[in-house]
Amino acid sequence: MPNVKPKQTKSKQTEAEISPTPIDKRFEKLVKTVEKENPGFLAVFAGEFRYPIKQTPIEIAIAQTRKLNLLEEFILRATTDFNPPPTLKELSKVLGLDTIFVQNAIAHLSNLGHISIDDSELIHITPQGKDCYEQGIISEEPEYQTIYAITEPLEKKISLHQTALEIKTPELPNLEDIISLKVRIPKLSNLKVKKVQQLIEDSGLEINQNEDERMITHVKVTGKSQVLWKPLLILVLSSEALENKIVQVRHDKYIYNQFSDLLANTEKMNNLINQASSISS
Question: What does residue 52 show for φ and ψ, rounded to 5 degrees?
Fold first, then answer.
């Protein structure tokens, strides 16, 4: 009876334990690059998912600005210093100017929303007027423009775009089916003018404004948020000894470091790989 060598079951089991999870062929070139950047690590998973971001229309008012003239400055100062607030006749008397001249200045400030006049003809300064007086500038009738705020849960950030992004739903597994993305992002309705001005600068928007002559004076959310889908690549590398792992969450060349660190948790990462494999199968 011929001798039959026993099957090498142990080596096969070892091979099964370290065999890689299927890697999307579209990313093989990137995988090789990342492996070279991390000696001793091999990719065990590379797959693309979609995750939700939101797009919201925002209306901004951009107004021409100039320095307050002496009469406007006096009127605004009088509305804060006089107690009770002054009337047209009182201001004209104090200034020694013709009533019609002062009345025209008051009407202009009122039309711009910087002051208001009650039933007793008392002149009151508005919050907008206080800002105007404190800054020493006046905002003329504004022009309105719609921009779009994009909120990204992974980065906990808001970016602005001048045109709406196209709404597409890529045929990819939903990342939210695997791991919760419930992240608090500041409400857009709470955005202040100064914050929007900073976001415009950070986003590189070409809003037609000159710091010396034009400024944003008003911000308002004008519509409901729409869900957009952004593709993300999740790349997992493991050391040859299977003791250490590297996780990268990527969009193009950008790496989401914070979320990558979150997924580096072994339990979450294994859950991701296992569920992703079942979804793709």
Answer: -85, 135
Please tell me the pTM assigned to this model.
0.63
How many of the other CB atoms lie within 10 Å of CB of 226? 14
Q: How many CB atoms lie within 10 A of CB 256?
A: 19
pLDDT tens for each residue of 15-29: 333 334 478 888 999
Q: Please tell me the distance from the alpha carbon of residue 117 to that of residue 5, in angstroms, as a whole number.
A: 104
pLDDT digits (tens, 9 = 90+) for 93-137: 988 889 999 999 999 999 988 999 998 889 999 988 888 898 888
Rounded distance, CA 218 to CA 89, Å? 33
Longest dimension (CA), the chain: 129
- 255: which 2 tokens? 């790496």
Give the span between the Cα atoms of 105 and 71, in whole angstroms: 7
